[in-house]
Amino acid sequence: MSQLPPRQQITEKFPVVGESSPGFELTHDNWQLQITGLVDSPLTLSWQDYLKLGHQTWYFDIHCVTRWSKLGNSFTGVALKDVLALAGVQSEAKFVQFIAYSDRDHDTSLPLDVCLNDDVLIIHEVNNEPLSAEHGFPVRTFAPSKYFYKSLKWLKEIRLIKEDQLGFWERGGYHNNADFVKEERYVSGNLTEKELSRLRETKNFSRYKDQVLISLDLSNLDFSGADLSGVQLKNCNLDGCNFEGANLIKANLSNSSVLNANLKNANLEGADLDGVLFMGSDLTGANLNYTFLNATEFTREGFDPASVKNIQFDNAVINGLVAKQLEFLIK
Question: How far apart are CA 145 and CA 220, in angstroms?
């Protein structure tokens, strides 16, 4: 039986996290895969070439950084190491960069020694179904030992490089190693001790409006009635905070811990609450309309449940909300 990594919860759904489209229509006819960089023989594979590569099926779990895990999935495709062998990897190569068909320049990377393991895959089917557009049609990568953001949708190019380059999500503060056993979700806090102390004292985010604040301890602060619209607090400790009546419209609190907090009548409309832990918090009368609720938790064994009386969540994105959590909200 699979062992659930720290602070993950099981979902039967296959949530869509991040972009749901490369920004244009990909088809089998206009898709091709390039293998470039530090290789002996650069390759360009069409869809028909890809189909000739001798596919296999493997079984692995998926663990997303936004705290959901989908267990026991089948993946059909080809081992990455077999594709790299076709191009011939040069000795100078130390990392593999994966580049997507994407109008936002999505990419990621892995060490070459990881990519030469048997379990790093290029896939076109999950659970006996072709990849849907939102999950990376026609082809994506899959690295089962890493959080899911290291598995790139809409694969366009595999580039062998000497020096590592941070990928799309990693440039935004996600951990470059992404080991889910070690809970490597984000880099460490990105403010100095002096800046953090000043922020805790003033509770004024105006100078950070355009900055993503990561892994900060802001617990037990009083933000009642404050204008926190648009703040970006990823993976932060907000336990015990008072947000009563606060304006959190379009805030990004993804993966933050908001345990035992006061959110009575707080306005979180349009906020990104993916992976947020709300156990023990009072959300009475809170506005969660149009929020993103992938793997958000309101109840968990061993914790007091959140109070969700008169909560609003019209038009919230709940496809990735685990069934137990949705039942708790609507009971």
Answer: 35
pTM of the model: 0.89
Closest of 281, 277, 304 to residue 9, by C-alpha: 277
Per-residue model confidence (pLDDT) at position 98: 98
Residue 3 DSSP symbol: P
Q: How far is CA 41 from CA 34, 46, 121, 164, 307, in A?
A: 11, 16, 21, 21, 60
Of 140, 178, 36, 46, nearest in space to 97 by CA = 36
Q: Is the pLDDT of residue 16 over 60?
A: yes
89 φ, ψ (degrees, to nearest 5): -80, 130
CA distances in angstroms from 235 to 114, 215, 225, 256, 294, listed in the order given:
26, 5, 23, 4, 15
Query: Cβ distance 166 to 176 under 8 Å?
Result: yes
Mean pLDDT of the chain: 95
Q: What count of other Cβ atoms lies within 10 Å of the Cβ of residue 188?
A: 10
Query: How far is it, in rounded angstroms, from Cα 149 to Cα 62?
Result: 10
As given in the structure block, the two tokens for residue 219 are: 């617990």
Q: From CA 218, how far away is CA 236, in angstroms rounded? A: 7
Residue 2's pLDDT is what?
A: 63
pLDDT digits (tens, 9 = 90+) for 120-169: 999 999 999 999 999 999 999 999 999 999 999 999 999 999 999 999 99
- Cα–Cα nearest to 157, from 34, 65, 260, 10: 34
Written as one string, the DSSP assignment of 88-120 is -B-TT--EEEEEES-TT--EEEEEHHHHTSTT-
Distance between CA atoms of residues 192 and 205, nearest Å: 15
Residue 222 phi, psi dihedral angles, 5° rounding: -100, 105
Domains of the chain and CATH, by start: 9-171 (3.90.420.10), 190-331 (2.160.20.80)
